[in-house]
Amino acid sequence: AQSVTQPDIHITVSEGASLELRCNYSYGATPYLFWYVQSPGQGLQLLLKYFSGDTLVQGIKGFEAEFKRSQSSFNLRKPSVHWSDAAEYFCAVESTDKLIFGTGTRLQVFP
Amino acid sequence: ETGVTQSPTHLIKTRGQQVTLRCSSQSGHNTVSWYQQALGQGPQFIFQYYREEKNGRGNFPPRFSGLQFPNYSSELNVNALELDDSALYLCASSLGGKSGGASGEQFFGPGTRLTVL
Predict the structure, then answer these.
(1) Secondary structure of residue A6 in the 3-state scheme
(2) Which residues of B touch A98 (CB under 8 A)?
(3) pLDDT digits 0-9 by tens, A32-66
(4) CA B74 to CA A5: how far, in whole Å?
(5) Which of A86, A104, A100 is nearest to B35 (CA)?
(6) CA-based Rg of chain A, rounded to a whole angstrom?
(7) If we measure between CA atoms, which residue out of A29, A1, A5, A14 comes closest to residue A104?
(8) Of A74, A66, A72, A63, the residue nearest A107 (C-alpha)
(9) Cβ distance A79 to A13 under 8 Å?
(10) Is the CB of residue B66 less than 8 Å away from at least one CB of chain A?
């Protein structure tokens, strides 16, 4: 069955530090992969998506993610974190028009 | 361009009651998906409607039902509420179809926070 695993429940970084959030997926075919961000009390906002082509995808707010088929991973990165990046981050894979989400990683940013 | 809206924002119900949540899709979108997000969890797919027809259903009991209207807005109905139904209910709209595959980006509304006492 298709699934998404986000191994890190909670990550804390200092403002200005680099960030990498991990995501592993299980999917039989070529996956369509997404990263969403959710601020407290808000819905989900799409950061970036991978459908095909270049395995390094750029998103909004300075985020990027790299698709690695050999490792079944789609990790999210940002070179320098801002305090406003504190939020919950969800990785998702599309399966027949529905999204399957991981359990999320809560990012805390210290000044 | 109007985004996805949901009503109400918050709702408190007691066990056994019934609830209706509403979603207005983004202009031009013909597909609505509903997700349940329990506290500390990722969203779980409930079902999807495409052009007023159900286009898939997740692992939820029959007391979760819905419909889509000709203007592509949608309702989620939950009967015989249970404590475990307490969650954030998210609606997402997209321009998709029944062909499967990457149907395009799903745009999420802010959600309805349901509390069952």
Answers:
(1) coil
(2) 33, 45, 48, 56, 58
(3) 899 999 998 788 999 999 988 889 999 999 999 99
(4) 30
(5) A100
(6) 13
(7) A5
(8) A63
(9) no
(10) no
